[in-house]
Amino acid sequence: METRNYLPFPNASYRCRDNRKRPLLVAVAKGTFKIEDGKVLKPVQEQKPVLPKDTYFGEPGASSILRPSDFVPAKPRTDVFVNALAHAPGGKPQAQWLAEVQVGIHTAAYKILGRRNWVYSGAESRWMLEDPKPVPTVPLRYEQAYGGRGEVDGEEKVFGKNPLGTGFVAPAHPSDGDKVKAPQIEMPGYPVTELGGDYLPAGLCATYEDWGLHSDDAPYAACNRAHPSLMFPGKVPADAWVTLTNLSPEGRLSFGLPPYQMINLVRYVDGGMLPGAMVLDTIAIDVPNMEVQLTWRLPISLNSEVRVLEFRMEQNAEKNAS
């Protein structure tokens, strides 16, 4: 199969099976853009490649995911990933505050807390949660969310929804003054108050496939890797605006998505030809580097062998974004 790329962005295609085990060709285009506050995103000169596998902040399998693989058949919802620090309003350390991500009309909020611990009181024979201490920033990774794993009386305990987190496992025989780190990211209205409870971990980066945070049983639902609060139903409008609150030193950061429409033109061996609109299904925001990576995708049924796969961009949309 020949590939013709008429885009200013990297692309890839790969073969897999659909949810009914039928052969499928998946076309992916990925663009990297520079964030300028209050402006529509513009492509950067040095484009990031399509990712065949997950990348991590630290050790694979033992740290939060920086970027998930782009090689999935389809996504029923739009994934939004955010790599950022939560910044206290006004730049002054605070004990707690809210951070928000707004994409179009959809908003997700998070409660940010300073450092705190559960401390065991021997006199009262129970764990007591400290008040959070003021901090200027908090990393928004799953290590700071509720969860964790550890050994208790020789038996391993794992919080399946987030083994990287903290607060799920405590010593079976604590001594007075023992401490367990408490999470610093919560979902508003759902405070984490007890050790070992069943809470939804809060986070803004990608989840692991086997965490089971998503209850959706729709076809390809497992391909969505964003936190449930950052999976937006359907398509995000190509010209939607994104606003981040308390996720940058300035406090508020906004930018517009470029109104591009990516298109695949499929030329078959039998002479047939079929155009298809690619769907923007992944928005990965990197605040420290002031960049956004956008991923468009189109699954193509292989009812006939493909001779040429063309990647194109609608010229009117490109003109509107310039």
From TrEMBL:
InterPro entries: DUF2169 (IPR018683). It holds the Pfam family DUF2169. It comes from the Bacteria. Residues 22-211, 214-297 form the DUF2169 domain. This is DUF2169 domain-containing protein. It comes from Acanthopleuribacter pedis.
